[in-house]
Specification:
two-stranded antiparallel ribbon; about 60% helix; elongated; 2 helices
Length: about 80
């Protein structure tokens, strides 16, 4: 059986937003609510991992200055 394609950050975020909106605007049964909550947690974790990878990549971006390479640390508001 083929493995399902992993959603991109944008797809995961869009699905997560959709789940939150459905949970706020509807009154799903408990089983459906638990299923949506579980999927939301998985999507949230995926988004956080994607953001952490992006932050690490940005931390390693370099700047050339006088023919030397310097690591620039990204400062995220709220850290």
């Amino acid at each position: 059986m083929a493995k399902a394609k992993e959603p991109s950050f944008e797809e995961a975020l869009e699905e997560l937003e959709s789940i939150v909106q459905e949970m706020e605007n509807q009154e799903p049964e408990l089983a459906e609510l638990m299923e949506k909550y579980s999927r939301g947690v998985i999507l949230s974790q995926k988004c956080m991992k994607s953001l952490e990878r992006a932050e690490k990549a940005m931390d390693l971006m370099v700047k050339k200055e006088k023919n030397t390479v310097q690591e620039l640390e990204l400062k995220i508001e709220g850290d």
